[in-house]
Amino acid sequence: MAYETRLASLMSYQKGRVDVIDDDPKNYAFSNIFEVASLAKPFEQVAVAKNFEYVLEAVRAEGTSGWRAAAHDQSALVLDGQVEFTFKTLAEGHPLPDGGSGGVPEEAAGTLVGRVVARRGPLTLLPAGRAYRLASPAPAVVLIQTVAGPDTQFRWAEICQTA
Amino acid sequence: MTVTGATPHGEVHEPNEFGYQSFSLGEFHFSRDEYFAYVRWPTGHHVMSADAFLRALQRDVAWEFFYGIVNFDGVVGTVNHYGTVDLFAGRYNDAYRRAELDHVENIETPVIKDTFAAILSDWTNEGFDPFASPEETGSAFGPKNGDNDAAITRHRVTARRMVSLPGDEPLRDDDNGHPVNRMFADVDQDEPEVYAEPGFEAEVGSFNLFAYLSRSPVTWNPSVVSVCRESLYCPTTEEYILPIIHGNDRAEWFVQLSDEITWDVEDRDTGRKRAKVVMKAGDVAAMPSDIRHQGYSPKRSMLLVWENASLKIPQLISSGKFPTQPVEF
Ligand SMILES: [Fe+2]
User: Of B9, B73, B134, B236, which residue is least crowded by CB atoms under 10 Å?
Assistant: First the structure.
């Protein structure tokens, strides 16, 4: 028998839901990454999951992002489209937030460290202390594993099932 | 085997007429016959299908008692205190609690781990793999017939930084015994393009997570593939039913990467039904820290389980300093 693996995309996703028996659906913070990305501006970092200081951010990658960097490792999972990641050295002493990523001015991004081109499925390391940027000619969707930072957007009431 | 110590110890007893050893852990006693596993304690006794019991026991052993509560079913299970483990019967079952028939023993982790591993080894017959989906393995039933120690002592993937980086957990391929699963034959196997400047090879890394998961030989076995401080990505491939009912001591999050899982959610302490959560590709949901959950996956699916491994969390939540749901709005 041939099986079809159902993946989703910005153009084609279906949402499940919380069917309450005796509960409040808000306890589950139920959302869909593709729906969040379809409503987001390019490169907004919208939290879709939070566990104490840690978050998962849904990002709509479209065009070329600014340079960013974090003091800790992060990961980026491409869920739709194709994304090119470029990594550069970071100017010595450039301040970084305690947690999460911060913007890096062009002049603080130094020499090339490497590049990754990822289509749907790859998990890419965003290494601590390096500048990185994302580029995608068409809308793509990326899930970032990180710590809540200065640019993390929280909009639970807009993205989550409430009833 | 006798393990001595200040806390309850484990003992193994001679094989019965079906060829299976029985085991004691403190005042708990475990035995099996052709079809069933039996658990006795001073105020009660319980029976489970040997098949279901071994699938649950396999997870508890491989995960080193995991986070919080591993319920084998609505009666028997373990609570991880990260150094010691509660072995319980009826502790999280309203009827047993009201009748005061529940029983708990707190056991040093190495003691219960050794005895559980010994039960798993003795009771698992040749041809039965408790980690495999039911369609992909033989029967757990019948009299004692060989063993399957290679399957039950599999290496558990725990990346230090990320799978595929130099010196970290390797990728899976046909040559290292990881063919693509029959239900993921259509998953794209192309790896991303990775260019590292000389000297930066250890930091520039990317791998096809979907292809990696399509080659997982096991089900319901979250394994660490990437680390951000104490935030762990623990993806897993799911088919049929989660063999345990997981009771949370902290919130955990699910990101459904492919296909569909239905979660049955109950109150953690009483088993009262709370919700059904249906998750499709792209859906994200929290499992709050006062529930227990069991998943049903009709086709093999990819699930990203996201954990916060901080040791300070259970205390913060049980003391009421942090709410049971991870976000408030
Ligand atoms: Fe769980």
Answer: B134
Residue A43's CB is within 10 A of a number of other CB atoms, namely: 19
Place of tokens 């990961």: A75
Provide, as residue numbers in chain A, all residues whose Cβ is less than 8 Å from the Cβ of B160.
none
3-class DSSP state of A104: strand
CATH code reported for the domain at B157-217+219-318: 2.60.120.10
* CA end-to-end span of chain B: 54
- Put simply, the answer to whether B228 touches A26 (Cβ < 8 Å) is no
Q: How far is A136 from chain B (nearest CA, A)?
A: 15
> Global pTM?
0.96
* pLDDT 10s digits, A8-41: 999 999 999 999 999 999 999 999 999 999 999 9
All domains in chain A, ordered by first residue: 42-155 (2.60.120.10)
Closest CA to A69 of A38, A46, A94: A94
* Sign, Cα dihedral of B132, B133, B136, B139: positive
Q: How far is the CA of B249 from the centre of ligand 1 (A)?
A: 10
In chain B, where the domains are located: 2-151, 157-217+219-318
Kindly indicate whether the ipTM for this predicted assembly is greater than 0.85, answering yes or no.
yes
Chosen for mutation from A35, A52, A160 (greatest number of chain B CBs closer than 10 Å) is: A52
